[in-house]
Queue: 3 jobs
Job 1
Amino acid sequence: MSSASPTLATPPVKRSFREQMHQAREDAIVAAVNRLLAEKGFEAMTVDEVAAEVGIAKASLYKHFPSKEDLAAAAMVKVMQRAQSFLDGLQARPGLTPLQRLREVARWTMEVQLAGEMPSLPSENSSLRAALAASKPYVDGLMDVSDRLGGWIVEAQADGSLNTSLPPIAVLYTLYARACDPVLGFLKASGQYGTEQIIEMVLSTCFDGLRQR
Amino acid sequence: MSSASPTLATPPVKRSFREQMHQAREDAIVAAVNRLLAEKGFEAMTVDEVAAEVGIAKASLYKHFPSKEDLAAAAMVKVMQRAQSFLDGLQARPGLTPLQRLREVARWTMEVQLAGEMPSLPSENSSLRAALAASKPYVDGLMDVSDRLGGWIVEAQADGSLNTSLPPIAVLYTLYARACDPVLGFLKASGQYGTEQIIEMVLSTCFDGLRQR
DNA sequence: GTCTATACACAGATAGAC
DNA sequence: GTCTATCTGTGTATAGAC
């Protein structure tokens, strides 16, 4: 968004390079936070671990992000952006039915979780909750995603492919919950199934239910 | 299990009374731990909070339980025992089909969770995990519950009421996961539905699936 | 067994040199 | 902006009187 100051003698190229380095460093930080957040959750993750994984001093982290909460919030925003990008890609495929889109979204969240990149959600009274609620990019992203999914949900109910007796918000929350469903980890830990099999099974239980059809 | 020593002059009644007091105190402790475990999880729960809620000094807690992990493990064992008692009650009702039994189990776990009494499961690398794996009562209880549910699952698949393309273990894990499904909390927080409505909706998504039947 | 007081460890955050 | 060194609070656990 910001351009190099024209009054300075330093060439814009150099400033851009430094900004690129800065951005790359922050990306590395956010990626490490994301991974640790998925692995152990916000409370159990320590800033020392983040610093160690990135390979910089802890004090340097605090030059980039003012607190542990902001660190985690940045990772959550990043995940939300990835989700938005995925929805963009889905919307660009006109051949899909609304139900197919919802199914693809669920599949994507499960893939992200099995890749160890889906942060587990903070408990109700966590300090992270306040930070997320105060983060405009996060809240805006969440609302955007919810709106788009909500649109597909009502469309799928209108065309008769989705259970019409469920309120759309219940469907929406059910899809969100699949992103952190521990069933994936349980089945993975059992060692009997590959990631693709696991995802197919959980997708089946989610959309088709446990009862025989 | 233990009886008063016959060589002592103190009447057995008194010893029994003190044991009752002791047991009542421990029950109060476990109940508080259970509630806090459900509310904020193992990492965020502090022993100070437990002591404050029970109304005794922190050091007294450590006379009853040697560590925070043992404290939490005791609460988990208690929950497992409650589950076993519930299964006992279900088995005593011969009129129920296997599918109905499974549905009642899912309903019970959701009721417990909405009552704020279902501890959230520890993350993969938590110190609580090791304590639970080392707790014979817990592991035994978990295996007993799994065996009984597993029996009903294969019965329900045999009588054609449960999806036969799913491995029984996937069904089992799916039921376990419903016990800590965040959807319940989401819907509760939305303020639009009562607990009974919420449970019916989640039961529907679990057994009937999101797709229209 | 219950208490007060305290030891010990560690996590989040900062100071200040470079 | 990065580092080393440090401050500060807090959480688990224990000592020791009663």
Note: Residues 46-48, 58-59, 62, 66-68 of chain A lie near DNA strand C (CB under 10 Å from a C1').
Job 2
Amino acid sequence: MTSVAVTKDEISKEENMITIKDVARLADVSISTVSRVINDSKPVSPEVRRKVLKVIEETGYKPNDVARSLVTRRSYLIGVIVNNLAQSYVADIVRGIEEIGKMYGYDILLCSSYSSKETQEKYLQLLDRKQAEGLFLVGNKFDEKIIEQATELNKPCVYFTRDVHENMNHISIDCNSAIYEMTKYLIQEGHKEIIYVSDFENRSTVEDEKISGYLKAIEDNELEFSKIYVVGGNKHNKAYELGETLIKNKGEFTAVVCSSDEIAIGIMDSFIDNGVKVPEEVSIAGFGNIREGKFVRPELTTIGEPYYDVGAVGMRMLIKMIKGDKTQQGLMELPFTLEKRKSVKTLV
Amino acid sequence: MTSVAVTKDEISKEENMITIKDVARLADVSISTVSRVINDSKPVSPEVRRKVLKVIEETGYKPNDVARSLVTRRSYLIGVIVNNLAQSYVADIVRGIEEIGKMYGYDILLCSSYSSKETQEKYLQLLDRKQAEGLFLVGNKFDEKIIEQATELNKPCVYFTRDVHENMNHISIDCNSAIYEMTKYLIQEGHKEIIYVSDFENRSTVEDEKISGYLKAIEDNELEFSKIYVVGGNKHNKAYELGETLIKNKGEFTAVVCSSDEIAIGIMDSFIDNGVKVPEEVSIAGFGNIREGKFVRPELTTIGEPYYDVGAVGMRMLIKMIKGDKTQQGLMELPFTLEKRKSVKTLV
DNA sequence: CTGAAAGCGCTTACAG
DNA sequence: CTGAAAGCGCTTACAG
């Protein structure tokens, strides 16, 4: 038999984990006292405090949040269910959520569902078991059942979505006004024949608002022409196809307002590939200010939503709700921006 | 005094939380038995199981993972510290991590540090206190101190970075070969004067490998010309500026290989804005296959790294390490792809 | 200011 | 197959 020298250090690597008990023993005080100095929850005499702090320092003791969580019934965990993390706006919202959360000691449990209802259900259960204190749902649209299940969790819940339901805490911009302003802007630039391209696949409450914003701008400015096209299905591809259809009616309009940047870029690509000059022949405007809009040539004129702020405001709202403030619930609208870039031509 | 009717339902909304104890009482068994049926950990007679399941069903009981965590010493939480969630490759890696993690019951604690060392330190502490079982660090570069602190946590740890240290578990592609292949490809397309643009700001071990890959390709193909430029600082801006410098030496080269897509796009924009035609006059190649590369015109030829797979493989490795498999540690290289698009012109 | 004790909601030997 | 008991690492009345 060979005997192997085992150093203290090696042992500690295996199953170290020093606890509050160890600290108490080493500092020759009760665990209550240790707890008090860690949390600064009750007065402790200076000498005792120093003694305890010294032991903590020496041992490198770190409180176990799981144990603390169990007794305080506070997890400081916030669930964030996103449909697609790869969308740039999602990352921005998450950043807002995270930064404000960090200020208040909350952490993010990230759950990407890729729009799968089953995955969302599983995550909802999981967040419940993990004692998440609140949750965010971010994505264009969520199934009724999911919204129902999220509500049944009886946890504070905030949505970032394009399909707004009743009793839903929701933060966004005023999409109706946004499209109204965009259409008005095009009119001011001298456009008289403006079409709107709607997103059929994701037909939602917000899409209805956008359409009515478009129509109202047309009406308020006494334009004679208005026309709504609908793209059906997977955005970029379908928008590209629709673009080819639009080319056939090229003389009909001088500008197109799109329900989303994805659609706008799809149409623009289709125009360019087919020799229709943007913005010389046709102006195009999008909605959402996705990152790609700045890389596309010409750069896309669009509506900007302050996603970071949207996330930050959402987190503030959620925290208030966690604290029991019922008044915070409801809708909330943040100011949007009109990003004037190169895809729109001035006609006057 | 007014008395308000309070229904059972309302009460349960306040401070419900039914526990294993309640289930045991209602099913008239011990909590051990309830635990056994929940976890399927030991045989339970069919009738008893049915009885317990029925109560669980009726009460909607959900086990408290925090309590379970405390006793099992398993949190099933994996910390992911990212520098910038908004970068598309990060989202892809996280997706890989998450999907494999989900298969094994692990959840992601997301920590965005925006390259702040202080934030990273705080998150490291936090992940420790939350009993995270392992962690990922994803970002171009991490400070020595951070790497040290991460190591001291004594938790399985995997990096996705461009600055590889010794004893670091790391997953990526073979960047040396990648640049070698890209340069070779340009040579095969007839280019004889090829420059390389290096990333000075993020000078890292991987950058050194890239440079030597470039030089080796030049040498292996017996080209007489080679030249390395360096961009200093914030990528897109600085690359744009460097582009203007390059234009002065336009006749010197026919192709430029860049250390990253960001640099390539910056230079390309600069060329285009200054009337230098890409790829007619100069061909450009990037590295990384960021989403923007497909939106830029001409579309950018680049090296693709399978980020999703990189994340997935990383998670697999981490899980093995959590299970105590020491052999899994070290470097791991996945195959890259050469994305041939429009920014490179064939000269032969 | 300090400590002993109870308890948070679970799991898991141990004994039967 | 089942239950009583101990214990995971903490916090927090309670008593002094």
Note: The first strand of chain B starts at residue 77 and ends at 82.
Job 3
Amino acid sequence: MKILIVEDEIELLTAVSNYLVKENHICELAENYQKADEKISIYEYDIILLDIGLPDGNGLELIKAIKQNNLRAGIIVISAKNSTDDKITGLDLGADDYMTKPFQLSELNSRIKAVLRRRQSNGSNTIGFNEISIDTDSKEVRINDRKIKLTRKEHELLMYFLINKNRVLTKEAIAEHLWGDNIDMADNFDFIYTHLNNIRRKIKSAGGKDYIRTLYGMGYKFADV
Amino acid sequence: MKILIVEDEIELLTAVSNYLVKENHICELAENYQKADEKISIYEYDIILLDIGLPDGNGLELIKAIKQNNLRAGIIVISAKNSTDDKITGLDLGADDYMTKPFQLSELNSRIKAVLRRRQSNGSNTIGFNEISIDTDSKEVRINDRKIKLTRKEHELLMYFLINKNRVLTKEAIAEHLWGDNIDMADNFDFIYTHLNNIRRKIKSAGGKDYIRTLYGMGYKFADV
DNA sequence: CTTCCACAATGAGGATTTTCATAGTGCAAA
DNA sequence: TTTGCACTATGAAAATCCTCATTGTGGAAG
């Protein structure tokens, strides 16, 4: 799961991040609200851990912003204060859970799982681009309501493009995302070419446009123009 | 391996830390030279990643300090500048390698491995268990010097066992490690059974014992007894 | 001790992924 | 403009992975 951690204490942040990475989550960090805001406006997250005691402003505002940009994300508020006010206000604004520092990492983990469970139990969750849409739960891919069937790698690759729409992805980055570390870059990228080819073919045959732009010598970009 | 990362850019620091944790390293962080200096005087590290462009002073000084306190550590200098001066000075002072930003994580990884290899004085990097040994670089698997050929998944699975020898691994943990989040647990675990079966067969046919113990209802354990 | 049932093992076949061979294309330099 | 070369595309074959059907097994309950 993709998790954004908003926290200025570097020690805490590291501990949490390292722990969550070991739990097989993908972590990104923001050490203040401004950076958090930028990330939220660009990426999709499953969980956002939000310290509301940061120096540069009121974190409760950020919750609102998250609710607008990133509906899918679960929010867990972290606070040093134990003030009931903050707690109530945070939960009112749409936070899914609330923790006070200090906390056990295992506690954090179980809360994350609980929030994910709650989130996933209800309605469907799609990410899309023009006529293309992917249901992130059922993993169904549709072109104008016409369902196409992708294999796992194809699905992962298309998903990676959609999560990073309008952003150039190098072949190296794609390889690392789809195959992890144990891929030998000294090899060639035939496998990427092949999967790209298959995705393009399947989308085209269902009447979709080819939004996968090849940037010669750079990589690929999923974009309108 | 224990790694200290000295870097003030939180994005880079996180990316590096997360990546290295996944590679089974233990990471600690310092966002400036003062903190780095404190940590160095207290702890032992195997590798120190050192950004010499930090705001609070001259990083080359820190190299000297490391050399005095922490002789065992390998030093990899990171720099935004491409200046030959810095490079030479850094290497002169005893850094083991030098990288310029930006860099690929995979590149960092291979440099870390190279430095560790050099430090450990002897050539290859193996992890083993009785008559079984895996070279983590060449990915060769040997049973009493008899080489066997494993497929990727088989290799990942055996590696996972060897890294966690004597530890019980649930099927869920194995699934998550080998296939990530996008595996449907509601399914069955046939694929694990199949790969286990193949590994056992290959090891046996090369004359190795079957150290993969089945713990009924619990999972599996790679152990002698 | 026997029965039963969930868990585990196994082999074969189908699906997916990767490799390979070959063809096509964009960019830079002549 | 032409040429050369590295990069990209493509289809088919090979290797690997996953699914399925079937068989075997451990341990709890009776």
Note: Residues 105-121 of chain A form the longest helix (17 residues).
